[in-house]
Amino acid sequence: MTENAIGSSPAQQEQVSTESRISGENEFAIEVRDLVKRYPKAQFNAVDGISFTVKRGEIFGLLGPNGAGKTTTIGILTTGVLPTGGSAKIMGLDVAANPVRVRQRIAVVPQKSNLDKRLRARELLTFHASYHAVPRAEREARADRLLAEFGLADRGKDNVNHYSGGMAQRLMLARALMHTPDVLFLDEPTNSLDPQSRLFIWDRIRSLNEQGMTILLTTHDMDEAEQLCERIAIMDHGHILVLDTTDELLKLVPGSANLEDVFISLTGRTLRS
Amino acid sequence: MNTTTTAHDYSSAAAERSRSLFSVSFLAFLALLRRDLLIARHDFIGNLVQWLVVPAFFLFIFGRVLPQTGAAAPAYGALLLPGMVAMSLLMTALFGITLPLVIDIGNEREIEDRLLAPLPTAFVALEKVLFAALTSLIAGALVFPLAFLILGNAYQVRTDSIGTLISMMILSAFAGASLGLTLGTAVKAEQIGLLNSVILLPIIFTGCVYFSWSALDSIKWFQVVVLFNPLTYSSEGLRGVMTPGLHGNALPALDMRWVLLGLAVTIVVFLSLGIKGFIRRAVR
Fold this sequence. Notes:
The complex is a heterodimer of chains A (273) and B (284). By secondary structure, chain A is α/β, with parallel strands linked by helices. Chain A has helices at residues 10-22, 70-77, 99-105, 121-131, 136-149, 165-177, 195-210, 222-228, 246-252, 259-267; strands at residues 28-37, 47-55, 59-63, 85-90, 93-94, 106-109, 183-187, 214-219, 231-236, 239-245. In chain A, the strands form 2 sheets. Chain A has a 6-stranded mixed sheet with strand order 6-7-8-3-9-10, with helices on both faces. In chain A, strands 2-1-4-5 form a 4-stranded antiparallel sheet, covered by helices on one side. In chain A, helix 7 (195-210) links the parallel strand 7 and strand 8 (214-219). Chain A is globular and about 55 Å long. Chain A starts with 9 loop residues before the first helix and ends in a 6-residue tail after the last helix. Chain B is an all-alpha fold and 284 residues long. Helix content of chain B is 74%, strand content 0%. The radius of gyration of chain B is 22 Å and the shape is elongated. Chains A and B meet through helix 3, strand 6, helix 4, helix 5 and helix 7 of A and helix 1, helix 2 and helix 5 of B.
């Protein structure tokens, strides 16, 4: 029996163990097969038949320019976007069929701040945990610990409207950890942050991963992808062009110094274009 | 530094996940409700002023000044009061859900954290409806003491059917909140200014707030038009249970069966439209 079947009904256990068998004893945290998304009235597929898997405990990167389909992919995996075709599973649970169960296992740090501005910083953390049924004593203790770790201990009572971009990003990451997710999604986590905040976030991402958290991040920053990710999928126009470890990707194009060179040779464009 | 998550956190997370789907969703629903209650507590004074100012002016001018200057009948206050309670209920519920929703779901996406809570998306919408209905019941109830103070001797409310009165208020609150949910998901942030002129005024002036439905006998077409306004059913329902009889006869109001049907249809139709609209906006 797998960890996620503890205390569930026999029918649920059966479903989970079937899922586990299919996914190779639940070796994968994320499984995406032939995933397609076309938004209503759109001319093209935002995500056009992509497939990939992410192992438990892996840091996986989706690298590509704006409009490549990275955010839509994260949207589907985090139950905010309905797929048009194909399937996506988180910890063996289909995202379209079991959105509520999937939400228990994931956390998302979005590209733009979506902090609940009506709440104060610490309330933001405790309410997030209470949405996820974390008992009161525990969520209070966890909020204090995370605020301290993210350098926000003395700003817990602040209105988040007064937070800088870096502070908002740290608070969103702290919020994501309040319910101890299995899989953490980071959409352009350090986009538009100052170098110091960027290094801080990178450090936290590595440390979370060392504790066993699976992390999927999107970025159009090749440096970030190279620094953090074990494997990288390079996306463009809704497709995955290549998917491999950083070293293997660099070998793809002889003479390339970094992933930007690989991307240019694959698409004829730069990542930021 | 590496203490972000502990083994204890993981074991308690496993315990939280082992709950049944219903229990997980119910706990998340309660937490959403608590969030809204906390915010309402922060804004209490502002809300109180908002709830009292409009009915206070209407009751004073129409229920006190006009009758005393002879421009309205002395008993006009008794006819107006049920309309004011209905208007407070319906409008507080409607705007209590429409305005925050238009802003939340529009550009800001502040609602995202609640949409990622482990409960069906429809429950997030239902929580908004329940909360808006609860606050509007407070606003509606406050009109009674306000009227008692302003109307003086003209304050006359029957107390023989309190149960029906409360049920009528609850139905009105949910009708307003359901309507608000539909509007909140249909209106875009840049159209918010239109709400006043296109929604608020027509609803108030065709909602049998200032006149009873039976008095429209002489303007038949208008009597039919007002039947398309949910506020008509709310006003007439409350009028039926609140106003004292004249010379031993109850003041004529729309038949209670039509009132119940009108409010029930409003709730069913707009709640389902609103939930559909909410899901369409929330899950792309």
